[in-house]
Write a structure and sequence with these properties.
Radius of gyration: 17 Å
Largest sheet: 5 strands, parallel
Structural class: alpha/beta
Number of strands: 7
CATH superfamily of the largest domain: HAD superfamily/HAD-like
Helix content: 25-40%
Distance between the termini: 22 Å
Order of helices and strands: EHEEHHEHEHEHEH
Shape: globular
Number of domains: 2
CATH class of the largest domain: Alpha Beta
Strand content: 5-15%
């Protein structure tokens, strides 16, 4: 991954940070005759057959999830304000997209990012993001920041790279009241215009 060591580094997640993943996944499931109910801050436990009270078995939900990444992850709207914020930040910082996604989804995800004006270096990860974030932050002599929607990923970065500034962002308004947060450890800002200002204050 080529980055300018003299410029700050911004590591940015995709789903529910730059893209409205749950909305896109919900439309994909509807096309298969299923329902996605935003009952909790979860994924597979929110997939139902119409009229049923029990969610779909986890293994079946995971199959639909993998299919969405292979076939439908282009059908996702960008988070409001995210494209413009990254464009402005990229004038002074390295932007790297750090996402947990299945390997076969790389090309589809890269195409989605490019189509929406976010053609930045893309790194696919599995599991906790801290070790990889620490390695990338070590490549620059300037400050670094990490933006994600999930507390476990933010905690992982805090453990592996405590010098990296961390921000929680939850793009889908339906998920915001359901999402766990830890503002004492990771400031949470769900609006990209405000988040851009906080990132600038942290790394420039």
């Amino acid at each position: 991954m080529g980055v300018d060591a003299e410029r700050p580094l911004l590591l940015v997640d995709v789903d529910e940070v730059l893209g409205l993943f749950m909305q896109g996944f919900g439309r994909f499931l509807e096309g298969r005759g299923l329902e996605f109910r935003v009952d909790r801050f979860a994924l597979f436990q929110n997939i139902y057959r119409p009229g049923e009270a029990e969610h779909l078995p986890i293994d079946e939900g995971r199959t639909h999830f993998d299919d969405f990444f292979r076939l439908g992850c282009g059908d996702m709207e960008p988070a409001p304000g995210g494209v413009d914020a990254l464009r402005a930040l990229s004038r002074r910082a390295n932007i790297v997209i750090l996402t947990n996604a299945p390997g076969p989804a790389r090309m589809a995800r890269a195409r989605w990012l490019a189509r929406h004006g976010m053609d930045y270096p893309l790194v696919l990860n599995t599991g906790p993001k801290g070790p990889l974030a620490a390695g990338m932050a070590a490549q620059v002599q300037a400050r670094a920041a990490f933006i994600d929607d999930l507390i476990p990923n933010l905690d992982s970065v805090a453990e592996s790279a405590p010098q990296v500034s961390r921000f929680q962002m939850v793009a889908d308004p339906r998920l915001r009241p359901l999402a766990p947060s830890a503002p004492d450890r990771h400031p949470r800002i769900d609006d990209w215009r405000q988040l851009r200002g906080a990132i600038e204050a942290a790394v420039f």
